[in-house]
Specification:
single chain; 387 residues; mainly alpha; 21 helices; 0% strand; globular
């Protein structure tokens, strides 16, 4: 085993941060100068989808080692790698800070490449206009000739932003544009990831059979390629599709198994999303107390991660649960928070649904005029986006 491989193995296994720092302190300048930092990052990348936390440990060490060695290129690459691993681990806020820093210190073309990932993280954090702005900046920077592949990837990133806004048809169109370009040049795993996003868009367009076929194909390909983390994420999306089709028991069984696996992988975001989806299914199965507890837990974890759109969804389901439990005041409080978030985020589908639910509460409390105004606003919001 080479020196780099042995070091990577030691770093991957060492959970205590102070022990990893001690490994770096124990190196003199000559040892550090001989260390192949880029190969160390390649080792981390090979581990990322199987063990993202181990990958992050190696990358953080490399970042500090490059800083001490005065190797700015390796330091920037390490920072970018750390951010990518944080994203896989469901820590988008931390990833966003690192991507934002990198774009401020990198040359324009490198900053544009980093903007590709940064925009996707911003979408996850519901900073949609900023995400679209980053994509447009990147488009303006890169040349037209010789950069078709990168422009295809920008289309995919744009689709992810639209999808996060509930603009499913625009998302699908963007994914299809990106796929048409990338299918000629990109490796198969890239196309597989685009197909997962296409399946998500088809799900929200209620084209369930097409989405089902795509999800199954994507899961097979990820497992064949040994990309377990992405196979899990696809299985999660497929479980949500099952719930939309009314296959509640199959969806619950899938979500509970996935929650355990996400927990073992320290993927906090997907653990919380499993809770959130189980809360939604529990409401369909008339289990409001269970739904309320799950929605509360999901909202707490997602708020810690800064994932505003999903926090709003947790508040929405928590409101329905509280209403069923006979707590109209608490139901209204949660629903008003959700409605304000969805309005601010520009998510027409969920904003309209929140207005509709608030109109129902108004009607129950004898405020018919307000109920009519809210219902009309809900129709206006949803018709504008062809929902």
């Amino acid at each position: 085993m080479s020196t780099v491989e042995q070091l990577a193995e030691d770093l991957a296994r060492t959970q205590e941060p102070h022990k990893r720092r001690d490994l770096l302190r124990g190196m003199d300048d000559a040892n550090l100068a001989e260390l192949d930092l880029i190969e160390l990052l390649r080792n981390a990348l090979r581990r990322r989808m199987q063990d993202p936390e181990a990958s992050r440990r190696i990358e953080v060490f490399t970042m500090h080692a490059a800083g001490r060695a005065g190797d700015e290129r390796a330091r920037q690459l390490a920072i970018k790698s750390v951010a990518s691993s944080q994203l896989v681990l469901g820590r988008p806020r931390a990833a966003a800070r690192r991507f934002d820093y990198l774009r401020s210190v990198m040359p324009p073309l490198e900053a544009a490449r980093t903007g590709l990932q940064y925009a996707q993280v911003l979408a996850m954090l519901a900073r949609f206009e900023q995400a679209l702005g980053v994509i447009e900046q990147s488009r303006r920077v890169v040349p037209h000739r010789g950069w078709a592949d990168f422009r295809g990837r920008l289309s995919v990133a744009e689709g992810i932003v639209y999808q996060s806004q509930g603009r499913a048809q625009e998302a699908l169109d963007a994914f299809n544009r990106g796929r048409k370009v990338l299918v000629r040049t990109a490796k198969r795993p890239v196309i597989t990831s685009i197909d997962m996003n296409r399946a998500n868009a088809l799900t929200f367009l209620e084209r369930y059979d097409q989405a089902e076929r795509l999800y199954r194909r994507v899961m097979r390909e990820h497992e064949t390629n040994g990309v377990h983390a992405l196979a899990l994420q696809t299985a999660y999306n497929h479980a949500y599709l099952q719930s939309l089709r009314g296959e509640y028991h199959q969806a619950l069984h899938g979500l509970r198994g996935l929650r355990r696996q996400f927990d073992q992988a320290e993927d906090i975001r997907h653990v919380a999303l499993c809770d959130l989806d189980e809360a939604e299914i529990s409401l369909q199965m008339n289990l409001p107390a269970h739904a309320a507890a799950l929605a509360e837990r999901a909202a707490r974890e997602l708020d810690t991660l800064g994932i505003t759109a999903e926090v709003a969804r947790a508040e929405f389901f928590g409101s329905i649960a509280q209403r069923s439990l006979g707590n109209p005041r608490e139901a209204r409080r949660r629903l008003e928070r959700a409605e304000a978030s969805f309005r601010e985020l520009g998510n027409a589908m969920w904003w309209g649904a929140s207005l509709h639910r608030l109109a129902e509460l108004d009607l129950e409390e004898g405020m018919a005029g307000r109920a009519v105004r809210r219902a009309q606003k809900a129709m206006e919001v949803m018709r504008e986006k062809d929902l």
